[in-house]
Design goal:
Layout (H helix, E strand, L loop, with lengths): L3 H12 L8 H11 L5 E4 L5 E6 L6 E7 L4 E7 L6 E6 L11 E6 L2 E8 L8 H4 L9 E3 L5 H6 L7 E4 L4 E3 L4 E4 L2 H19 L7 E7 L7 H10 L3 E9 L20 E6 L6 H14 L4 E5 L6 H4 L8 E9 L6 E4 H17 L2 H6 L4
Parallel strand pairs: 3-12, 3-13, 13-16, 14-15
Antiparallel strand pairs: 1-2, 2-12, 4-5, 4-9, 6-7, 6-9, 7-8, 10-11, 11-17, 14-16, 16-17
Helix pairs in contact: 1-2, 1-5, 5-9
Amino acid sequence: MFDEKALDVLKRMTESFGPSGFERETAKIIKDYMKPYSDDIQTDKLGSVIFVCKGTSERPHVLLAGHIDEVGFVISGIDESTGFLSFNPLGGWWDQVLLSQRVVVRTEKGDLYGVIAAKPPHLLTDEERQKPVDRRNMYIDIGVTSSKEAIEAGVKIGDPVVPWSPFMLINGGRVAMGKAFDDRIGAFVMMETIRRIKEDKISHPNTIYGAATVQEEVGARGAQTVAHIVDPDVALVIEVDIAGDVPGIKPMEAPTKMGRGPSLCTYDSSMIPNQPLKEFVIKVAREAGIPLQLSQIARGGTDAGRIHISRAGCPSVVIGIPTRHIHSHVGLLSLEDVENAVKLVIELVKRLDKETVESFTAI
C-alpha cells in the first residue's frame, strides 16, 4: 500500500485550490513531486503538465492521463446592500448538494471563507418548502454586510471558488474522504505508477507520458492540447467511476462498487473504447490476479473522449476508481482500489510494446 510520502502528496493535491481554469497551485505541487522521477517535463499552453519516463524504446508513446481540475464556482456578482456573492458553476453540480456547505473564495488579497446559503426555511411558504432550492436563489456569505466590505476584502467578479473539505482517512485508514478525487486520484495513480517504475527500475518497451491535464470538467480542453503534444500511440485515461453501492442505485445504472477493484469503462457518451485494447486490459488483469470491474456510464465523458480522436486516432481506455458522492464537497474511495489501479497500470505498461500496440488497430 501507499507510504507516507505518497499519502502526503495525495492530501496536498486534494486539498489544494484548483477549479477548472485555475489549476496552477495543484499543477505546481504535482510538478515538484514528479521532478525526481521524470526524464523530461513538458507543458502545453493551457496549464497541463506532462512527465516523460523513458523505456527501452522511443515508440510507442504511452499516454497516462488524469485531470487535475476540480468542480468549483466563479463569482458572478456582489449584492449591493448585503455583500452576498452570487456564483456560477465550473463543471457539473447538482444544486441540492450545495446548501450549508463551506467554500473558499480566492481573491487578489488572499483566501476568504464562506458558506453557501439561501432564504431560511422558517420564512418559506408551504409551496416553497415542497421545491428544491435553485442555485440562482443561493448566495455565498463571507460574513460582510455590504458590497463595499466585500470589495475591500478583495472580492471581484470572476474570482474562483472551491469547496472547503479537508482530506482524511477513515475506516481504519482503508478509505479516503475529501474533495477533488475527480480526478486528482487519477493523476495520483499516474504519478505513483511512474514513481514505482523509476524507483524499482521496472523495464518497459515504450516511452511513458504522464499527463496532469486541465479543464476536463468544462469540456476536456487540456486533453486535446496534451494529445497534440504527446502524439500518443495508446492512451490509458485514469478517472473516478461512479460507485453504485449507494441506496437507490440499480446495478444496471452503476455496476461498480467501492472496494471491489478498479473498473474498466466499456462505454460512455464521449467514447467507445478500442475493443482489442479493452480485451487486452481484461486479459492482463486476469493474468496478474488484479480485481477488475466492468462499467458503463450512459451520461458523461472523460479526457479519453478527446484523446481517442486526436490526430489520426488513438486506441484508448478509461480505468476508474469507484468513488462515492462525486461532484460534491465530500467523496469516498477505497485506497485498496487505488493500489490495484497502480498495479494494473504498471502491468499494462510493461506489456505495451510496438507489436502489441499496433495489433490494437490492425484490420
